[in-house]
Amino acid sequence: MTTTTPAVPNTAAEILAAAKALAPVLRERGPEIEENRRLPADVVELIRATGAFRMGFSRAWGGPELSSVEQTEVVEALAYGDSGAGWAAMIGMDSGLYASFLDERVAKEMFPHLDMTTAGLLFPTGKAEKTEGGYRLTGRWQFGSGITHADWVISGAFIYQDGEPFLVDGSHDSILLMVPREEVEIIDTWHTTGLAGSGSCDYAIHDVYVPEGHTLTFGEVRNGGGPLAQPEVHMRNMPGVPLGVARAALDWVRDQVVTKSAGGGANRWADNWRMQVALAECEADFNATRSAVYGAMERQWEVLSAGGTMDDLTPDERAALPLSRAHAFRTARSIVMRLYDLMQTGAIYKPNPLDRWLRDTMVMCQHVVAQDKILQSAGAHLLGARPSFPLSLGITS
User: Fold this and answer.
1) What is the C-alpha to C-alpha distance for residues 356 and 316, in angstroms, rounded to an integer?
2) pTM (predicted TM-score)
3) Ranges for all domains in the chain classified under CATH 2.40.110.10
């Protein structure tokens, strides 16, 4: 008897449906994922089977080429099930996005199938020494989310030649380098308050040769084009994680209130004025925040898919992209905190999912996309001044 492996979903509708179907399983596996401090191998394969890791690969390569909105919806669905799984899926699917910044022949050698994952830290904390045909890479990086199941590791590094800092083409002093996971040392530092399941360990690379073809910068698209071949593309679907968590927390609390009110009586939770007002406020904040995220991305996609560039967005439209992302993270944390207070002492015990959602949103808000640097960069752009994190606005020069 022979068995046939089911085909991996390859359209937006199929991938989203598979992610939504997997969410209850992820919710059930949540305590195990957190205790494991990384995704168990079979959970990685369950996510891979949804098609989530292939979302960024182009149709020209046989991929689904999901829009940024569609990618975010999938991440949101997975994070609704489990925060760590949603985060790891969001990071892992960047393989297809990075492919646009590599030579096509090299990229196809690196990614022989569409469901391969990438992890790593983009900020240049390593040292890339120029050598014949490439670089010798050495360094240590933090926050390698999903690195324990990654195929490739991408890392930022400052460029050196003969031991001295080197400026390429007189324009940039750092580069991104991609190394096979087997050549990377994982350092198990991921003992955190929350988001434990993302497995965001430190990692080190020791004098590894990286061919020139395995390097990239977001300022140069080497193959393909279109809305996904843009310098800030890897940041767009990030709000799916906090939105998914906030929606999960809201639905869980509402279900608790309804369940505890089912018996009737004079003290039904559903009739409690405090419950009604707090839940309504949280729903209002969630709906407004989610609409801002998707509205900004939809406008960006409209401009880029019509052949425009990021420069064709108005300053307000361009600033709305990083601002809506940051606001989604902070609002999700605020919603979960208010729900935690609403449920009072019942929320403090670890079997209660609010405990984990609170810790997870606290940790994810420490990511740079939720920090004041984003507010400064957007505000500076609106005022015609210098952003401290221009890449968040899709600016590379």
Assistant:
1) 36
2) 0.96
3) 118-216
